[in-house]
Amino acid sequence: MKASLPLLAIIAVTTMFFAGCASVDVTQTAKGHYNATNPNDVEILKTKPDKPYTELGTVTVTGYAPTAVAKMYNAIRTKSAPLGADAVILLNEGMSAGTILSPAGGRWATGVAIKYKQ
Asked: How far apart are the first and last CA of the chain?
């Protein structure tokens, strides 16, 4: 049993090292404070909306699995809602090339969290 404990520790550390980490970073760029919105109400847009809006912050997403589009969008909603975002305009998104550690590559996106003007 003693010999298997170090082996389990090595396996656990190796698994954590090779597992990809998905992240969503939101940086507030607007002055002031807006009340948080419900993440379920935050829209994901691919083009600028016709109605006037204020930019609240930048959104950067990395490391999602190629098939995890819905999961990535839900994470964007969750991270943008505390800023008071009504929507996030995705300016760019795509797939990064695979590596030895992550052969499938990863999904990435950049965008802007916005608040509609009343």
From this structure: 66
